[in-house]
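Service request form, structural biology core

Requester: graduate student, group of Dr. S.
Request type: structure prediction, single chain
Budget code: on file
Notes: please return the result as structure tokens.

Sequence provided:
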Amino acid sequence: MTSERGEGVTRNGAMAYLNEIKVAFAEEREKYDCFLKIMIDFKEKRIRTNDVISATMELFKGHNDLLMGFNTFLPRGYKIQLPIEGEQLSKTVVLRCECCRNFENKVKVAALLEGHTDLLNELNHFLPGASRP
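Core staff response, request fulfilled:
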């Protein structure tokens, strides 16, 4: 198996990483199970890479070794970076992600309604953050 970064990700490497998670959360089995559900949802394309990263960062909070190890499995262009000691994730990053999601949704809608400018203009009134004429 090869990650989109071109790095070799072996089945043994993936199993070893899952074992690290299982050991780290031996007393909190639900966190391990939650991680598996996140991975299944991602594989089935029910959630996006950004959502996987956010959920994993929240789930593995305080386990920097697991977070850094997860980078191996992320596609090219994505990387978990730990905040500096004591620093919280900034609201700017969260807002930027939200803006990206809003933009992505608008593009999907625009593609769906291509050629139907009247419908697209009407729909824009209902989208979050849409400007009103």
